[in-house]
Amino acid sequence: MKKGVRMTLPGLRVGEKLARYCIIQGGMSIRISLHRLAAAVAESGGIGTIGGMGLSPDELKSEIRQARLLTKGIVGVNLMYAGLYFTDLLDVCIKERTDFVAIGAGYARDPFRILSRAGIPGFCIISSVKAARIVARTEGITGVIVESGQAGGHLGPKNADISTWELFPQVQLDLYEQGFTGPVIAAGGLLDHQDVRRALKMGASGVQLGSRFALTEESEASDEMKSAWVAATGSQIVDWSPTGLVGRVIIPHSSDRLPQLGEPGIHCVDCLKVCSHRDQGKAHCIWNSLNNAQQGNVREGLVFCGGRVGEINDVVPVNEVFRRLVNPVAVEI
C-alpha cells in the first residue's frame, strides 16, 4: 500500500484570483468577521470576508487595508442592503478595490451594476427560487450564495427550517435554467469535510461556512460569546428582530434581558433603513443587543448562531479548521 493519496478540494475563482480551496468564510457583521479572521482564511487557501454591517466607512476602509497587509489571498466584504449606510460602505469597497462584495438582506439591481462597471465581482445572497429567477438576469452578479434556513442570524427562506440539501438543488436548477453561468455556493448548516464533499457532489461550486469560523481564535467575537456557542445545546428560531425576518439563536436563550429602546443609555443608531422597533418606539434595539454579545455581555446580548452550533465543541485556529475541512484523515491505498 502507498501513503499520500489526499482527498483535496477544488479551488474557486473570484474575478482574476483563484483560491486554493472552494471554501468561503461567511461575513458575520457587528465586528465578528474583521481583518484578522478574513486574512487568516485567505492565507489558509480559502476566501475571507469582512462583515461590513456595523462599521463606519472609515472603519471598513481600515479593515480592508489591514487585511491586505496580512495576505495576498482573496478578501472581500459582506454588506447588508437593508443597512442605512449601505451606499457609503459600497463606495468604500469600490475605492479600496476589494476582491469581491457579497450583498444580502435585501436586493436591488443598481449595486451590482455599479460593481460590474468598477470591475469588482458581486455575489448575491439568496434563499428562494423566486429570487433565483431575478438575479440570474441581473448585470454584475458574478456569483450566487444560496443560504438555507440552517444559516445563522436572520433567515431568508419562507420555510425557516429548510436545509441546504433541500433548498440548494431547487435554486441552482432555476439559476441554470435562466442562463446563469457563474459559481453557485451552498451555505447554511455546513460544518465538516463530509458536508463540503456532499455539497460539491450535489453540484455546488463551493461552500460558505459561518459558525465554524466564528469559533476560531482569529474571530473577533468575545470570549464570553464563544463560550456561549460552545455551551449551546442547539439552535432555535425566534421572532425577535425588527427586520421582519425570524432569526436563529442559541439554546438556551431568552429575550427578557435584551436592551429595550428608551432605556437609559440605549440610543438608536439608525443602523437599518427600515426598523419596526425604531419606527414604533418599542421592543429591543438589535444593534445594542448584538453589540453587547460581541463585547462580552452575553446575558443582555443577542447570540445568533448556525443550525448546528451544538456540534461545535472547541475554539481553534483558522488553519486547524482548514486541516479538518480539507483533509481530515490520511488515506492509504
- Rg calculated over all Cα atoms: 19 Å
Number of strands: 15
Q: Average pLDDT, to the nearest integer?
A: 93
The helix tally amounts to 12
Q: What about the largest sheet?
A: 8 strands, parallel
* End-to-end separation: 5 Å
Structural class: alpha/beta
- What top-tier CATH class of the largest domain fits best? Alpha Beta
Assign a percent range to the helix content: 25-40%
In what range is the share of β-strand residues?
15-25%
Order of helices and strands: EEEEHEHEHEHEHEEHEHEHHEEHHHE
CATH architecture descriptor of the largest domain: Alpha-Beta Barrel
What are the segments in which pLDDT stays under 50 over at least 5 consecutive residues? 1-5
Based on Cα principal axes, name the global outline: globular
- What is the CATH superfamily of the largest domain? Aldolase class I
Q: Give the number of domains.
A: 2
Biggest sheet strand order reads 4-12-11-9-8-7-6-5
Verbal overview:
There is one protein chain. The chain contains twelve helices and 15 strands. With 333 residues, the protein is α/β, with parallel strands linked by helices. It is globular. Helices cover 32% and strands 19% of the residues. It has two domains: 18-220 and 313-326, TIM Barrel (Alpha-Beta Barrel); 223-310, no CATH class. The longest helix has 14 residues, at 57-70. Helix 5 links the parallel strand 8 and strand 9 (141-147). It has helices spanning 35-43, 57-70, 86-95, 110-118, 129-135, 164-177, 193-201, 211-214, 223-231, 276-280, 286-294, 318-326, and strands spanning 3-5, 12-14, 17-19, 23-25, 47-51, 74-80, 101-104, 122-126, 141-147, 153-154, 184-187, 206-209, 234-238, 247-251, 331-332. The relative contact order is 0.15. The N and C termini lie close together (5 Å). The strands form four sheets. It has an eight-stranded parallel beta sheet. A three-stranded antiparallel beta sheet has the order 10-14-13, with no helix packed on it.
